[in-house]
Amino acid sequence: MDYATLAVLSGIPQDDVHGAVGLPIYATAAYQFENLEDGAQRFATGEGYTYARVQNPTVAALEARLMALENAVGAVALASGQAASFAALLSLLRSGDEVIASPGLFGGTVGLLNQVFGLMGIKVHFVAPEVEAVKAVLNEKTRVVFSELLGNPSLELPDLSGLAALCEAHQVALVVDNTFGAVGALARPLEQGAHVVTHSLTKWASGHGSVLGGAVLSRPTDLWQHYPQFTQPDLQGRVPWETFGPRCFLERVRNLGLSLGGMVLSPFNAYLLFQGLETVELRVERASSNAHQLALWLQQQPQVAWVRYPGLPGDPAQARAEQYLKGGFGSMLTFGLEGGLKGASRFLSRLELLQAPNVGDARTLLVHPWTTTHARIPEAARRAAGVRPEMIRCSVGLESPGDIQTLLEQGLAWVPVAT
Ligand SMILES: *Cc1c(COP(=O)(O)O)cnc(C)c1O
After folding, report:
1. Going by CA atoms, what residue is nearest to atom 6 of ligand 1?
2. Minimal CB count within 10 Å: which of 35, 167, 266, 274?
3. 217, 327: one domain
4. CA nearest to 336, candidates 369, 358, 304
5. Residue 417 within any structural domain of the chain
6. Rounded distance from Cα 247 to ligand 1 centre (Å)
7. Is residue 419 part of a domain?
8. How far apart are the C-alpha atoms of 139 and 143, rounded to whole Å?
9. pLDDT by residue (tens digit) across 20-63?
10. pTM (2 d.p.)
11. CB 80 within 8 A of CB 212
12. Are 63 and 207 within one domain?
């Protein structure tokens, strides 16, 4: 079935008691057992419900919908995007392993790699997400190559198919943070050969800036046969690869992230995210069209020194965007103002649009990454991540494009024009 159909029909549980159309919220902590054997069986197999830290029917419905939308072998929903990246990495890494990651990753991911995994005896190489650069540091200790669909805020698009082929040949997991791929409405890296995708559902999946959520998904693969955590017996004496097959990675994410780590998504948030997914494709199409028009318009403004948008002719990401993105070129754009930091400050001092550090919201949101999201990173690393003093990041929303232009003009009028 097509994405549009799956987005509204997948995952809805059948209500045999009331025939309700829609998703009930199960505000329950525990589930009752019929007898000793039933309880023992549920604990032994992980099938059926026991306790809401491990599984909840409302959250399970969201997971079923996510799995359908990305055509994955399964999905695990967690409390936030940060929890999703944490649990995915924790499930693949052991002390002594190495990770290759892009320097332009989301700041929280860089922090996780440096401040958590780095201290656990895992070495991280930060190199550009390009085949040659990754090849140069890849070795027999490498377990994960971690990339993002679109750099934030660099808007660089990695060579996903090239990286997937390289990882496949070396039996290394390619993990892609597909937050900017809008749960498959804009991009599906699993189809390009990535083994795992993570999501911050807080962004496009929610679409209303109202909840936090995250998810980990994987495609069918026998890669896990090459990871000792899946081929050696666990505490119950089960070999995960033999017991769960290609789902063994996600079982480990559920165990480490939820059962032991407790990074649980609330059923109420799962309910809102389930609703959000019904319109994500429509929202992405509308916001992409708005962003494309605005990027072309911004290029004509004398106060604007440069614009980056994957849909602009000649943009460094354009060729790959045509290959990997669908339904448009996304709702993220960046632009630089004349007058550097001062120009950016004057622009934001009079801007009538919202300034907030979020993306994928129904409303247009702008932020100055140099002094906010990336302010704590040393200047050289900030520049390596594609951040500039004059840069504004814009997550284009669903307002009418004419109104967004009018509201942007109020800020632009205060920016000195180069003479
Ligand atoms: C926001 C974001 C995250 C973190 O997600 P939270 O839901 O805020 O924890 C991770 N990766 C990317 C690309 C993001 O934009």
Report:
1. 81
2. 35
3. no
4. 304
5. no
6. 24
7. no
8. 9
9. 889 999 999 999 999 999 999 998 888 889 999 999 999 999 99
10. 0.96
11. yes
12. yes
Are 284 and 261 contained in the same domain?
no
361 lines ligand 1 (CB under 6 A): no
Report how many domains make up the chain: 2
Please report whether residue 384 resides in a domain: yes
Q: Which of 178, 203, 208, 269 to mutate to test the pocket of ligand 1 (most atoms within 8 A of CB)?
A: 203
The best mutation among 85, 202, 331, 367 to test binding of ligand 1, ranked by most ligand atoms within 8 Å of the C-beta, falls on 202
Query: Could you tell me if 367 and 318 lie in one domain?
Result: yes
Q: How confident is the model at residue 419 (pLDDT cuts 50, 70, 90)?
A: low
**355 residue type, one letter:** Q
Give, using CA atoms, the residue closest to atom 7 of ligand 1: 81
At residue 384 the predicted structure's pLDDT band, cuts being 50, 70 and 90, is: confident
204 and 179, same domain (yes or no): yes
| Contact predicate 103/45, CB 8 Å | no
250 and 313 together in one domain:
no
Asked if residue 340 and residue 305 are part of one domain, the reply reads yes
- Distance from Cα 200 to the centre of ligand 1, integer Å: 5
What would the pLDDT profile of 133-169 be if each residue is shown by its tens digit?
999 999 999 999 999 999 888 999 999 999 999 999 9
Give the domain extent around 260.
3-277
Distance 362 CA to ligand 1 centre (A): 17
Number of Cβ within a 10 Å radius of residue 413: 11
Give the burial class of 146: count Cβ atoms within 10 A of its Cβ; 0-12 exposed, 13-18 middle, 19 or more buried: buried
Mean pLDDT of 383-404: 95
pLDDT digits (tens, 9 = 90+) for 187-215: 999 999 999 999 999 999 999 999 999 99
Distance CA 137, CA 156 (A): 21
The SS3 of residue 333 is strand
